[in-house]
């Protein structure tokens, strides 16, 4: 043990180890300066390819089709309409074999329907007073004294003979005495009767009479 310790403590051995360390450092610095280290780093920095592996999905078979339903009724038979086969009738005895192609003359046009003319409207004429046979009514003395004046409208029912059957006051003159005097006096006048298609008929006629003092 003492010999090994004494050998380890020799100064020459320490110097040799220290020199080796210094030598290694010097070699390392030279290598860095000479570019050996750069070339080594470049080699380490080569292109790195990344490969993405797609996930492969397992092939799943499609589901089987559903089973057909059971106990289905059979489809109805298709209906085929019967076909009428023309049956040629045997030719009748004494039948005409050839048909003439001569065109037939056109049928004459049917006569237009006769439209009856509408009946003509009857011609009417009104009753007219015959002034030549009509006397002027007498002025009432009381109305003259009181100076009563006015116009009265009268209606007369004239018969087929032209005589007045009925007389009415249609519009008063404002004085009863004048109205009654005009109705009674003009009722005695002779009228020309109204006619229908030339035949006399009974009809109403209108007349106005004015009372005026002279």
From TrEMBL:
<dbReference type="InterPro" id="IPR051045">
    <property type="entry name" value="TonB-dependent_transducer"/>
</dbReference>
<dbReference type="InterPro" id="IPR006260">
    <property type="entry name" value="TonB/TolA_C"/>
</dbReference>
<keyword id="KW-0813">Transport</keyword>
<comment type="similarity">
    <text>Belongs to the TonB family.</text>
</comment>
<keyword id="KW-0472">Membrane</keyword>
<dbReference type="GO" id="GO:0015891">
    <property type="term" value="P:siderophore transport"/>
</dbReference>
<dbReference type="Pfam" id="PF03544">
    <property type="entry name" value="TonB_C"/>
</dbReference>
<dbReference type="GO" id="GO:0005886">
    <property type="term" value="C:plasma membrane"/>
</dbReference>
<protein>
    <recommendedName>
        <fullName>Protein TonB</fullName>
    </recommendedName>
</protein>
<keyword id="KW-1003">Cell membrane</keyword>
<keyword id="KW-0653">Protein transport</keyword>
<keyword id="KW-1133">Transmembrane helix</keyword>
<comment type="function">
    <text>Interacts with outer membrane receptor proteins that carry out high-affinity binding and energy dependent uptake into the periplasmic space of specific substrates. It could act to transduce energy from the cytoplasmic membrane to specific energy-requiring processes in the outer membrane, resulting in the release into the periplasm of ligands bound by these outer membrane proteins.</text>
</comment>
<dbReference type="InterPro" id="IPR003538">
    <property type="entry name" value="TonB"/>
</dbReference>
<dbReference type="GO" id="GO:0030288">
    <property type="term" value="C:outer membrane-bounded periplasmic space"/>
</dbReference>
<keyword id="KW-0997">Cell inner membrane</keyword>
<keyword id="KW-0735">Signal-anchor</keyword>
<dbReference type="GO" id="GO:0055085">
    <property type="term" value="P:transmembrane transport"/>
</dbReference>
<dbReference type="GO" id="GO:0031992">
    <property type="term" value="F:energy transducer activity"/>
</dbReference>
<dbReference type="GO" id="GO:0015031">
    <property type="term" value="P:protein transport"/>
</dbReference>
<dbReference type="InterPro" id="IPR037682">
    <property type="entry name" value="TonB_C"/>
</dbReference>
<feature type="region of interest" description="Disordered">
    <location>
        <begin position="56"/>
        <end position="85"/>
    </location>
</feature>
<keyword id="KW-0812">Transmembrane</keyword>
<feature type="compositionally biased region" description="Pro residues">
    <location>
        <begin position="59"/>
        <end position="84"/>
    </location>
</feature>
<feature type="domain" description="TonB C-terminal">
    <location>
        <begin position="124"/>
        <end position="214"/>
    </location>
</feature>
